[in-house]
Design brief:
Elements: E1 2-4, H1 10-20, H2 40-48, E2 52-58, E3 61-71, E4 74-82, H3 91-101, E5 107-112, H4 116-124, E6 127-129, H5 132-142, H6 147-151, E7 153-158
Parallel strand pairs: 4-5
Antiparallel strand pairs: 1-2, 2-3, 3-4, 5-7, 6-7
Length: 160
Amino acid sequence: MIRRCTDPDLPAMLAIINDAAQAYRGVIPADRWHEPYMPAEELAAEIAAGVVFWGCENDGRLVGVMGLQPVQDVALIRHAYVATAARRGGIGGELLRHLIAQSDRPVLVGTWAAATWAIRFYERHGFTLVAPDEKARLLATYWSIPERQIDTSVVLALRR
C-alpha cells in the first residue's frame, strides 16, 4: 500500500533512508559521505522545502519512501530509498510510478554518478541521462546542492 507519509512516520523514514544509504558507503566520494547519511534535521529541512514523501507499507510497516518536490516548472524525485531487507520486490518501481502520476510537470531525478544501480533503475522506468552541460544547468537551477555534489552527480529526465 502506498500512502503519503506523516509526522509519526519520521523515525521510520529516517531508519529506511539511513539503512538504504549504506549502499553509497565507499561508492560516492568520501567527502560527500557522512554518518548518519541523513540526520533528522536534514529530513525536516527537506520537508519544509516542499518535498512530499510517500511511503510503501508491507504488513503495516513502512519499507520504502520516496519524495516528490515541485520546483518552478518541474517535479523532482527526491530521496528514493527502500529498506535493505525489502529490496528487489518492486517497491521502488511502485513508488516511482505513483509519484510520476502525481504530477503533470516534466520529472527529473538526480543521483550520484557512481550509483550505477540507481541510474539503471531510473532508466528501466523511462528516464534518460541528460548531457553533462545540461546536467550542470539543471542541478544549479532546480536543486540546492554544493558545487562538489554537482560535479559528482547525474540528472535523468523522464521521457513522456
